[in-house]
């Protein structure tokens, strides 16, 4: 009798689960609570101002502290103001820098920041970090997941962690030498995630808002998507820390907490797509295909 009751209960639970309707990401966002979201820290938020609008970048000092600090100094000395986007490579990156960086007489002088730094391709793993592991596995790393809104990887054998080159990732360009970059040249990934760059370039953060302003730029005609002499680089009006501009001029924006229950539901919704349009569902997901919801307040 007990065995019959147990089997009946198990069958009822299974039947109930099969009949359960999974919500779409938009439906999950609509039913989210205020505690599921966090505001951006103005001291770790960059505003890249273009003629077409504002690109918002969240910095990740927990993974590249020296580069982030240097970028902050460069922003505060207004290093990028009046410089330009010099590269837009199809399905790859958009890069901004000093168009005259190779001309000693014309290049912009750095006042308080540094031109180069030792690489921060990876960092010592802090066991106190709230790591939300993605169960699907990964080709490029032993484990991947999310830390404070950033897609990351970790290797517990080496006790190292690093940011990932997903769409929107922002990195510090360099030459062949590992210590030849420092943040004076920055790029944002605008194409399919180039994960082969992981641990080869120092990543400093990711674009939170305004990706369409970068991904829609005209492609450069020269090698690697650089603008040649016949093309007009896209001017940068300014690149400032949000904390350095009046609060009234800041964009009020929130990011879904990646250690929240509802974000786990978002992952499940994207892993097992519930929308009627999908006839085949992979029931798996890759780290860079997990969207991190953002909303304006």
Please explain how this structure is put together.
The structure is a single chain. 17% of the residues lie in helices and 26% in strands. The chain is an alpha+beta fold. It has a domain at 42-248: Cyclophilin-like (Cyclophilin, Beta Barrel). Strands 2-3-13-11-12-5-4-14 form an 8-stranded antiparallel barrel. Strands 6-10-9-8-7 form a 5-stranded antiparallel β-sheet, with no helix packed on it. It has a 3-stranded antiparallel β-sheet with strand order 1-15-16, with no helix packed on it. It is globular and about 65 Å long.
Which terms summarize this structure?
single chain, 297 residues, alpha+beta, Cyclophilin, five-stranded antiparallel beta sheet, 5 helices, 17% helix
Rg on CA atoms, Å: 22 Å
- Beta-strand level of the residues, as a percent range? 25-35%
Mean pLDDT: 92
What is the CATH C-level name of the domain at 42-248?
A: Mainly Beta
Give the overall silhouette: globular
Whole-Å distance between the termini? Answer: 57 Å
Alpha plus pi helix count: 5
Q: What pattern of helices and strands is seen along the backbone? A: HHEEEHEEEEEEEEEEHEEHE
Instruction: Work out the helicity level.
Output: 10-25%
Structural class of the secondary structure composition?
alpha+beta
Contiguous uncertain segments of 5+ residues: 4-19
Full CATH superfamily name of the domain at 42-248: Cyclophilin-like
Give the second-level CATH assignment, the architecture of the domain at 42-248: Beta Barrel
Number of strands: 16
Biggest pleated sheet: 8 strands, antiparallel, barrel
The CATH topology of the domain at 42-248 is given as Cyclophilin
> How are the strands of the largest sheet arranged?
2-3-13-11-12-5-4-14
């Amino acid at each position: 009798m007990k065995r019959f009751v147990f089997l009946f209960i198990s069958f009822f639970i299974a039947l109930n689960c099969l009949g359960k309707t999974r919500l779409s990401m938009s439906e999950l966002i609509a039913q989210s609570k205020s505690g599921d979201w966090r505001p951006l820290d103005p001291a770790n938020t960059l505003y890249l101002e273009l003629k077409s609008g504002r690109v918002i970048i969240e910095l990740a000092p927990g993974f590249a502290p020296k580069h982030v600090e240097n970028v902050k100094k460069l922003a505060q000395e207004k290093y990028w103001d009046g410089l330009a986007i010099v590269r837009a490579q199809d399905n790859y990156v958009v890069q901004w820098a000093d168009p005259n960086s190779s001309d000693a007489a014309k290049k912009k002088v750095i006042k308080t920041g540094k031109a180069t730094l030792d690489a921060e391709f990876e960092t010592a793993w802090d066991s106190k970090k709230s790591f939300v592991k993605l169960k699907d596995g990964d080709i490029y790393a032993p484990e991947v997941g999310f830390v404070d809104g950033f897609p990351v990887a970790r290797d517990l054998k080496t006790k190292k962690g690093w940011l990932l080159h997903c769409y929107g990732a922002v990195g510090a360009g360099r030459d062949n030498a590992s210590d030849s970059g420092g943040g004076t040249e920055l790029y944002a990934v605008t194409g399919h995630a180039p994960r082969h760059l992981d641990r080869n370039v120092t990543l400093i953060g990711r674009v939170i808002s305004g990706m369409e302003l970068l991904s829609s730029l005209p492609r450069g005609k020269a090698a690697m998507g650089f603008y040649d002499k016949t093309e007009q680089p896209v001017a940068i009006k300014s690149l400032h820390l949000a904390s350095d501009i009046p609060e009234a001029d800041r964009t009020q924006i929130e990011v879904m907490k990646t250690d929240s229950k509802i974000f786990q539901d978002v992952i499940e919704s994207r892993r097992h797509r519930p929308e009627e349009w999908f006839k085949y569902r992979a029931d798996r997901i890759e780290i860079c295909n997990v969207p991190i919801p953002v909303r304006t307040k």
